[in-house]
Design goal:
Structural class: mainly beta
Number of helices: 1
Largest sheet: 5 strands, antiparallel
Distance between the termini: 38 Å
Length: 783
C-alpha cells in the first residue's frame, strides 16, 4: 500500500491509508446533537477524556439513531474488521443509547442483531412510523425493519418486513419526513431512487414494490441531506473515483414519493471542494455544509440562493472553512447540532472532530469562516478502544452523545461527548502549538549557528531559517533568510558535521549535496546561493546519518529502499571535496528502510525496515567498526536483526542512556508504538540482547520520525495521523528504566505533522505540518 522512498510518497500514501478499507458508504441525515472524541471505558494513556466503546459484529457502515426508542442501528457491512468485498455482512447491530452513552458505559454492547441484505451500508430512521430503512450495497436493495418490534428493548421482530429494489450499489439515503419521501443514491447506476415512504414502512408495505422516481446524477452521489422547509435535496458528488467536486440541488417539490414529474430533469449543481462526501443542512440558517475530503475543507452554501425554487446563487463559489486533513471521508462525517449552534466535522486523517460555529459561519454570516475551527480528539490514540480513523457518526441530542465508526474499518464503535468542545464551550478542545505558514519538508537544526535548514515541499531548494527570529513567542521572523539551490523539491535534509561545518542533504535526483554551514547560516548567507558539490548515490536516497567518530555517512536508497550507502565523509565535506566522486560501499538491508540511526558510542548503525506496505517489523543492526568510510570488510553481512513493532520507520539514538528508540508506524490501523532497545546489549559487536522482547512506549497515530533533545533526553515523535507530537520522557523511558513508557503525552500541532527538529540551544521544537500548503508549529521543549 505504501511506497515510502521519498518524502513525496510518504505524504501521498500516508493520506491514502487512513480511510477505512473496502466499501466507502454514506449516511442519512441524523437528528443533530453533541458529538465527540472518546476513549474506551475509563482512562487511557495520554489523559484522554473517559468514554466507552462497543465491539461490533464486523466492519461498520453508517449508523442511525431513533431517540424515541433510544436505539442505535449500526449496519455491519462486512463480517471482519477492515472490510473485504468478498466477505459481506448481512446484519444490523442494535445498541441501547440509554445504557451506552457519554455518561453511562455499563451497557455498551450489542443487544440484538437483525438480518438484512448483502453488505448493508446505511441506516435511516423514520420516527413517525418507527421504521428503519437499511441500504444494502451489493444487493441493490433497501431492507425495511419494524422499529417498534426491533429496538434496544424489544427484539422479537428483528427481521425485515419488506425489501425495496433500488439501483446498483446504493451508497447513501435520506428521508424527508414532511413529504414522506426516501431518496437513495445509487453510485454505480448514476441515479437517485425516490421512494414513497408513506406506503412503504413498518405499518404498511403495500407500496414497497411500486414504481419509483429516478433522478439522474451521473456525478456519483455518495452523501445526501434535505432541507424540509424548502423541500430541497442536496447530493454530494465525489463520484466513483472520489475526486468529484459538485453538489446536486434536487427539487423535492416536483420530485418526491408521490410526484415524479420533475425527477427526470438534470438538477442544478454547485461547485465545491475536491472529494465531497458529507453534507448536512442547518434548517435554522438555511445553510448547507459540505465536507470535502481531499482538500480538508467544508464548503458553506447559502441555501437562500440555491434551493428548489431559486438557483441563481448556485453558480457562486461558496465560502470554504479549513477544518483538517481528510474532512469527513464518509458521508456520515458531518452533522449539525442546532441546540449547540455547531456543525461537527470529522477529520479522518487527523483523528479530530472540528466544531464550526453555525451562528458566525453560515450562508449569510461568514465572520468566523476564515478561521480554523476548534477541534478535539475524535477517538483514543491508545488502549483497547483504539478506533482507526473514525469517519462517520450519529448524534443523540437527549444524552449529548456521539457514536463514531470507521466505515469499512475496524469492528468497533466509539462513544463520546462534545460537551467541552463546541461553539458554546471550548474548554475541552485541543490547544495546538502556534504555527506560521511554511512549505517545509524534512529539516534539521544547527544549534551552533541558531539555524534551521528546511527542505521546501514545492520548490527545488532548502530554506534557511533564523532560530533567533523564528521561535516560541515570536513567529514573525519565520520567513527564510536565504535559499540553498537543489535539483528537486523535498530534499532529505539530514546530518550536520560540526567539525567540518557540513550539512548533508539527499536530493531526489540520486545525489547527496555537501553544504557549507560556515558560509550559509542564519547570520552569514553569502555562500547559500552557490551550487553545492554532490555525491552520486542512486535512486531515492533518504535521510543521511553521520558517525562523527569514523567520519562515515550512512543513508538508505534504491527503488525498494533496501540498500544503505556508506560514504567516507572525511574526504567529502565542506572543506575537503577530493573524495566526493567516490563510489560508496553498499549494505543490503530489509525493504522499506528509510531512516538510519547511528550510535557513536558502540559504532553501530540501526536501520528500521518497515517494508513497502508498512508490514515489516525488523531493525538491521550493522557493525560500523567493519563497515565504514575506510573499512568495508563487514559491509557484506549484518551483525544482527532485531524484531520490533509493525511498520518501523524513524529511529534516534541516545548514547548517554544506551538507548535506541524505533518508531513503529503500524499503518495507523493499530496504536503507534516506540520500541526501546538497549544499545549496550544489542550493537554491532554484542548482539545477545538483539533477540529479546523490547519494552514498548506509547505514541500517537501513524508515528513517523523522532528527534532527540540531547540536553534533557526527551524524545519527540511526529504523529502523522493524530495532528500531534508524542513527548517521551527519556529519563523514565530508556533502556534501564521503562516505568514511564506506557504514558502517552502528546503536544497538539498542525495537521499531518511529518518532520521535526530540536534546537537545543534555544529550547525550541519545530514541527513541519504537511497539510495543504503546510505550516511550521513551534513549541517550547519539555524539561
Amino acid at each position: 500500500m505504501r511506497r515510502i522512498m521519498t518524502m513525496l510518497t510518504v505524504l501521498a500514501v500516508s493520506a491514502a491509508c487512513v480511510s477505512g478499507a473496502g466499501f466507502v458508504a454514506s449516511a442519512a441525515a441524523q437528528p443533530a446533537s453533541a458529538a465527540a472524541g472518546s476513549v474506551t471505558g475509563g482512562s487511557v494513556p495520554g489523559g484522554s477524556p473517559p468514554g466507552g466503546s462497543v465491539a461490533l459484529g464486523g466492519s461498520p457502515g453508517n449508523p442511525a439513531v431513533n431517540p424515541r426508542t433510544a436505539t442505535l442501528y449500526v449496519p455491519v457491512q462486512c463480517t471482519t474488521s477492515f472490510c473485504s468485498p468478498n466477505k459481506p455482512g448481512h446484519v444490523v447491530d442494535i445498541i441501547s443509547t440509554v445504557r451506552c452513552n457519554a455518561h453511562i458505559s455499563s451497557g455498551c454492547r450489542v443487544v440484538a442483531r437483525a438480518p438484512v441484505g448483502s453488505a448493508p451500508l446505511v441506516a435511516v430512521v423514520d420516527q413517525r412510523t418507527d421504521t428503519v430503512y437499511i441500504v444494502n450495497g451489493t444487493s441493490g436493495t433497501v431492507s425495511v425493519l419494524n422499529g417498534a418490534r426491533c429496538n434496544a428493548r424489544v427484539t422479537s421482530g428483528c427481521r425485515p418486513v419488506a425489501t425495496i429494489k433500488v439501483g446498483k450499489f446504493p451508497e447513501a439515503a435520506v428521508l424527508n419526513p414532511v413529504t414522506r419521501s426516501l431518496y437513495v443514491a445509487n453510485l454505480a447506476s448514476g441515479s437517485i431512487s425516490v421512494i414513497n415512504a408513506a406506503v412503504c414502512n413498518a405499518a404498511t408495505t403495500a407500496g414497497c414494490g411500486r414504481r419509483q422516481g429516478t433522478v439522474p446524477d451521473k456525478a456519483g452521489a455518495q452523501g445526501l441531506d434535505v432541507n424540509t422547509v424548502t423541500d430541497t435535496i442536496y447530493a454530494a458528488n465525489p463520484g466513483n473515483s472520489g475526486n468529484g467536486d459538485t453538489v446536486s440541488v434536487i427539487d423535492g417539490v416536483t420530485c418526491n414519493g408521490t410526484d415524479h414529474s420533475g425527477c427526470g430533469r438534470a438538477p442544478a449543481t454547485v461547485k465545491v471542494g475536491s472529494g465531497p462526501f458529507g453534507v448536512a443542512v442547518d434548517q435554522t440558517s438555511n445553510t448547507v455544509y459540505v465536507s470535502n475530503n481531499n482538500d480538508g475543507t467544508v464548503s458553506v452554501i447559502n441555501g437562500a440562493g440555491c434551493d428548489s425554487r431559486v438557483t441563481s446563487g448556485c453558480g457562486r463559489a461558496p465560502v470554504a472553512v479549513t477544518t483538517g486533513a481528510g474532512a469527513a471521508p464518509a458521508a456520515g462525517g458531518v452533522a449539525v447540532d442546532h441546540g449547540l449552534h455547531t456543525a461537527f466535522v470529522i477529520n479522518g486523517d487527523d483523528n479530530t472532530l472540528a466544531a464550526i460555529n453555525t451562528q458566525t459561519c453560515n450562508g449569510t454570516v461568514t465572520s468566523s469562516c476564515g478561521q480554523v475551527p476548534p477541534n478535539q480528539v475524535a477517538s483514543p490514540n491508545q488502549g483497547a478502544g483504539y478506533n482507526p480513523f473514525p469517519n462517520a457518526f450519529a448524534l443523540v441530542p437527549q444524552t449529548g452523545t456521539a457514536y463514531l465508526v470507521n466505515v469499512g474499518g475496524a469492528s468497533i464503535l466509539s462513544v463520546a461527548s462534545l460537551s467541552g468542545c463546541n461553539a458554546r464551550n471550548t474548554v475541552g478542545c485541543r490547544r495546538p502549538a502556534p504555527s506560521a505558514p511554511a512549505h517545509v519538508g524534512l529539516m534539521t537544526a544547527d544549534p551552533a549557528t541558531g539555524t534551521i535548514y528546511a527542505a521546501s515541499l514545492s520548490l527545488p531548494q532548502i530554506d534557511v531559517l533564523n532560530g533567533a527570529t523564528c521561535r516560541v513567542g515570536d513567529l514573525t521572523g519565520c520567513a527564510p533568510v536565504a535559499e540553498i539551490p537543489m535539483r528537486h523539491p523535498m530534499a532529505a535534509v539530514g546530518a550536520i558535521d560540526d567539525a567540518t561545518h557540513t550539512l548533508y542533504a539527499a536530493d531526489n535526483g540520486g545525489t547527496v549535496a555537501v553544504i557549507n554551514t560556515a558560509t550559509c547560516n542564519a547570520q552569514h548567507t553569502t555562500g547559500c546561493a552557490a551550487k553545492p558539490p554532490a555525491i552520486k548515490i542512486g535512486v531515492f536516497p533518504s535521510l543521511p546519518a553521520l558517525n562523527p567518530a569514523t567520519r562515515t555517512l550512512y543513508l538508505s536508497f534504491g527503488s525498494s529502499a533496501s540498500k544503505i550507502a556508506v560514504i567516507n565523509a572525511a574526504t567529502c565535506n565542506a572543506t575537503n571535496t577530493s573524495g566526493c566522486g567516490q563510489t560508496p560501499a553498499v549494505i543490503k538491508v530489509g525493504a522499506g528502510t528509510n531512516v538510519v540511526a547511528v550510535s557513536t558510542a558502540t559504532d553501530t548503525v540501526y536501520a528500521p525496515s518497515g517494508g513497502l506496505g508498512f508490514n515489516g517489523d525488523t531493525v538491521s543492526v550493522i557493525n560500523g567498526a567493519t563497515c565504514n568510510g575506510t573499512n568495508h570488510t563487514g559491509c557484506g553481512h549484518l551483525a544482527a536483526t532485531a524484531t520490533v513493532g509493525l511498520g518501523p520507520f524513524g529511529a534516534v539514538v541516545n548514547d548517554r542512556t544506551h538507548t535506541v528508540y524505533v518508531v513503529n508506524n503500524a499503518d495507523g490501523d493499530a496504536p503507534g508504538t516506540v520500541s526501546v532497545i538497549n544499545t549496550a546489549t544489542c550493537n554491532g559487536t554484542h548482539t545477545t540482547g538483539c533477540g529479546q522482547h523490547f519494552a514498548v512506549a506509547a505514541a500517537g497515530r501513524s508515528p513517523l520520525l523522532a528527534a532527540l533533545d540531547e540536553r534533557t533526553g526527551v524524545v519527540y515523535i511526529s504523529d502523522f495521523s493524530s495532528a500531534g507530537v508524542t513527548v517521551l520522557d527519556g529519563s523514565r523511558c530508556k533502556a534501564s528504566v521503562t516505568t514511564g513508557c506506557a504514558r502517552l503525552r502528546e503536544q497538539p500541532v498542525g495537521s499531518q505533522p511529518f518532520t521535526l527538529a530540536v534546537n537545543a540551544r534555544t529550547g525550541n521544537v519545530y514541527v513541519g505540518n504537511t497539510f495543504q500548503a503546510g505550516s511550521l508549529s513551534i513549541f517550547a521543549a519539555r524539561r
